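quick q for whoever's on today - can somebody do inverse folding on this one?? i tried earlier but teh output was garbage lol. tokens:
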């Protein structure tokens, strides 16, 4: 029996969420410490069945799967069809350490791990862009109107400067290292719902919302320059300002605001919500003089369910 493995990391948005849906730039960073993993085995029948213990689903077909899992079964089917292998039965075991619905790319990573696992089982190769394009199929079911930033950063496994339907660019990190702390509120917030609420709010007041998006997109461009030139203090200010704009858009909540305030109070150079908002996570930039352990404790005291760090230093993906 052939068993193959596909893996994909989590992700976090540094700046540009929501604006990126409307064609403005965003910066996204992979979270390599958390990941989704799909083990794919051939089966003698022609069915595709999936097991996802994290979702409490075992050996289910597309018809039996929950709305969360069925897009992934559909995706596996598409990959099989893409290679003309429709009759090859597959059993997929999917596990993930990425918290669900917290803006850390759980859906994109599950989709990309599935695509990679099926490709590996079939002995085929796709490049990162082809993998991301296929994975968008299930993201559209999960997220309604995704910008594509999640699948792009997860597939590439490196920091990106992303503009919808434009060639993806990497981020140059020349002089310094940027250390971020990510604090999870523990509140699950479906991206599709928040993106839809923002669309409704924008329809009601287009000029105001478009100016918010324009501001966030400009901040993504400025942040890219601050990363390139090694200016953490300025990047921190930019993050604080992005959080204020996201509050105005209406996607923050008391728990996120509380974590942002705690981070800044305990030595972060800047902090903001990350992802769709109304729950999910906060990203904070740790200053050179800040004590990461004290910041970690302060965030937990302020309500974070889990806290971890990631570094942006331009090093190639492992
Ligand atoms: C993506 O993690 C967050 C949003 O910008 C939605 C999207 O880009 O598809 C809110």
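ok took a stab at it. sequence:
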């Amino acid at each position: 029996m052939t068993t193959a493995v596909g893996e994909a990391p989590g992700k976090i948005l540094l700046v540009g969420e929501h604006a990126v849906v409307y064609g403005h730039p965003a910066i996204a960073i992979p979270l390599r410490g958390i990941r989704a993993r799909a083990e794919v085995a051939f089966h003698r029948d022609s069915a595709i069945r999936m097991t996802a213990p994290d979702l409490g689903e075992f050996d289910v077909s597309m018809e039996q799967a929950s709305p969360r899992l069925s897009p992934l079964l559909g995706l596996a089917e598409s990959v099989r069809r893409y290679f003309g292998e429709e009759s090859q039965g597959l059993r997929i075991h999917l596990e993930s350490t990425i918290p669900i619905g917290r803006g850390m790319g759980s859906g994109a990573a599950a989709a990309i791990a599935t695509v990679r696992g099926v490709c590996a089982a079939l002995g085929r190769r796709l490049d990162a862009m082809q993998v991301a394009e296929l994975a968008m199929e299930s993201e559209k079911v999960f997220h309604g109107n995704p910008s594509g930033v999640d699948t792009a950063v997860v597939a590439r496994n490196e920091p990106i400067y992303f503009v919808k339907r434009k060639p993806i660019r990497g981020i140059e990190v020349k002089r310094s290292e940027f250390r971020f702390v990510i604090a999870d509120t523990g509140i699950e917030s479906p991206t599709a719902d928040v993106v839809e609420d923002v669309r409704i709010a924008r329809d009601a007041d287009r000029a105001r919302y478009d100016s918010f998006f324009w501001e966030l997109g400009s901040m993504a461009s400025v942040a890219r320059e601050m990363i390139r030139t090694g200016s953490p203090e300025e990047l921190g200010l930019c993050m604080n300002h992005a959080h204020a704009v996201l509050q105005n858009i209406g996607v923050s909540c008391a728990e996120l605001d509380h974590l942002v305030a705690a981070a800044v109070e305990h030595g972060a150079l800047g902090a903001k919500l990350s992802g769709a908002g109304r729950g999910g996570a906060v990203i904070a930039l740790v200053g050179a003089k800040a004590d990461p352990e004290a910041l970690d404790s302060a965030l937990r005291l302020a309500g974070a369910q889990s806290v971890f760090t990631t570094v942006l230093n331009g090093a190639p993906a492992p």
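fwiw The chain has two domains: 3-162, 172-312. also Residues 172-312 form a domain with the Alpha-Beta Plaits fold (CATH 3.30.70.890). so keep that in mind when u check it
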